[in-house]
Amino acid sequence: MEKCRSNANQLPSPANGDLITILSIDGGGIRGIIPATILAALESELQILDGKKARLADYFDVIAGTGTGGIIAAMLAAPDEENRPLFTASDVRSFLLDKGRAIFSKSCSKLASVAKGFGALWGPKYRGDSICRLLREKFGSLRLRHMLTNVVIPTFDIKTLRATIFSSFEVKSNSSMDALLSDISIGTTAAPTYLPPHYFETKDSEGKVKEFNLIDGGVAANNPALIAIGEVSKEVHKRNPKYLPHKPMDCRKILLISLGTGGAKVEKRYSARLARRWGVLGWLLNGGSTPLVEIFTQSSADMVDIHLSVVFQALRSESNYLRIEDDTLMGNVASADISTEENLENLVRAGEELLKKPVSRVNLDTGVYEPVGNGEGTNEEALTRFAKLLSDERKIRQLRPL
């Protein structure tokens, strides 16, 4: 069924207001429960301000996500039959909690049943049929063009060796990118060694077939915040009237909330002395994790955060940028795929505890997150402040029709 994006609840264009609002969610497998917990808290704050029907898609011009963050972004912006968000932020967290064990189960390797540790030599750790089925059930026939707000989801095409970004902005002029939400979500979560690559095809308005051979967008952009800003910048460059008042592009006009999925930096689990003995297997299998994938995704997320921190601080607009991340995870909680009931509960607890921690920013010299210490309070208090800014921005736009 075709959806129409025009409705009374839709956020008016940035040209009507003072800010461009962006929500970005990192990839991280089952650790996506952490940002999902934070998003539930943010949506609750918005509901206190604007009523129980308030949804995150009503307040953000762009919602970007990689990996599990891509699933979250798609769920938050997907429409129901009444053209309202199909899922609340609490629904998203419940989905990850309820279905996490189904997604990360059932090794595809026949050899794994005989020699557990060597199964990944012959195929991905998980078959991927569970996540495919669940996402197809959730999204049905919904496509990228149906989203209630702009969505940006990075993937990587292993056939063309280039990042493939599914963007609501691009799909308006390139119908070949109008893929099913389920296919996009399966592709962006297909982490190497964990889940198999995802192949699918689309047809453009003239019937020409385009093929996709996708793996996890985290190999290119585990933190998609910079890509989201880039997509908005392209609209400014194209002189899109919805964004022209903000030309030239200026981070002082951006309100950005960027959510990480946690890391294990303080655990210091790897060392050069240990890694110097690793061959192919050592880099792919070590202590129940995949060091090579973990290093790629962590460094990708960190570099984006460092870049944005420098820019926002240089423009004296750091108060418009909220990065909520925890690099102190240890043990199973730092894993991308351990989905025991105990670990799922611990991930929820990690998200709740993160809300109580002070606002932190990455130290540009050490790369470690440190408390800001300038009166910004806890992450929970910062979310309350940002909720008020988002609510005010929405009201400003509604009072300034073009």
UniProtKB/TrEMBL annotation:
<dbReference type="GO" id="GO:0016042">
    <property type="term" value="P:lipid catabolic process"/>
</dbReference>
<keyword id="KW-0611">Plant defense</keyword>
<keyword id="KW-0378">Hydrolase</keyword>
<dbReference type="GO" id="GO:0004620">
    <property type="term" value="F:phospholipase activity"/>
</dbReference>
<feature type="domain" description="PNPLA">
    <location>
        <begin position="23"/>
        <end position="229"/>
    </location>
</feature>
<comment type="similarity">
    <text>Belongs to the patatin family.</text>
</comment>
<comment type="function">
    <text>Possesses non-specific lipolytic acyl hydrolase (LAH) activity. Hydrolyzes phospholipids as well as galactolipids. May play a role in disease resistance.</text>
</comment>
<comment type="function">
    <text>Lipolytic acyl hydrolase (LAH).</text>
</comment>
<feature type="short sequence motif" description="DGA/G">
    <location>
        <begin position="216"/>
        <end position="218"/>
    </location>
</feature>
<dbReference type="InterPro" id="IPR016035">
    <property type="entry name" value="Acyl_Trfase/lysoPLipase"/>
</dbReference>
<dbReference type="GO" id="GO:0006952">
    <property type="term" value="P:defense response"/>
</dbReference>
<keyword id="KW-0442">Lipid degradation</keyword>
<dbReference type="Pfam" id="PF01734">
    <property type="entry name" value="Patatin"/>
</dbReference>
<keyword id="KW-0443">Lipid metabolism</keyword>
<dbReference type="InterPro" id="IPR002641">
    <property type="entry name" value="PNPLA_dom"/>
</dbReference>
<dbReference type="GO" id="GO:0047372">
    <property type="term" value="F:monoacylglycerol lipase activity"/>
</dbReference>
<protein>
    <recommendedName>
        <fullName>Patatin</fullName>
        <ecNumber>3.1.1.-</ecNumber>
    </recommendedName>
</protein>
<feature type="short sequence motif" description="GXGXXG">
    <location>
        <begin position="27"/>
        <end position="32"/>
    </location>
</feature>
